[in-house]
Design goal:
membrane, disordered C terminus, FtsL/DivIC, 2 domains, coiled coil, transmembrane, Septum formation initiator
Amino acid sequence: MSMTRTTRTRRPGKPTAKAGRGSAGPISFFIALFIVALGAIQLVSTFYTYALTVSDLNGLKRQEAALEAEKQDLENEIKRWDDEAYVTAQARERLGFVFPGEQAVRVLHPEAVTGQTDAERQQDNDASDSQSLPWYEELAYSFEQVDRQDTSAGDTGESARQQPQSQTDTTDTSGEE
């Protein structure tokens, strides 16, 4: 009995399966991972650029709408100046023009007439422009202001307040008789 050994011989042109998988597997995995990462970065960058562009576009649309509104206001202003009555009113208000036969009266010291200085009048105009209250709140506010003025006036204001009330009471009773 002869023992024969069967041995496999290796062919020179064909590598074994074990040697090929062991060295190429991790390298191909990392190359594929690197390509996927680059693709993801490129995709995120593209979406970010798109979002910025859409944001800029929306801002430009808002700016365009504001400019269109301003343009319409200016065109309306130009049309107003074509109206003879508007031009007359502006000439009277801004330049103090009067028609022949009229007399212009200019008050040199308006605080003598109104009791307010220019600074107080400007503050009142600013306050009324910045705060527009409903009518019922304005009414309550005016009552509070009157009450404050009455309490700050003290006795002099109170005696002045009582005198007209007594006169009205007298006239009321005399009217009934």
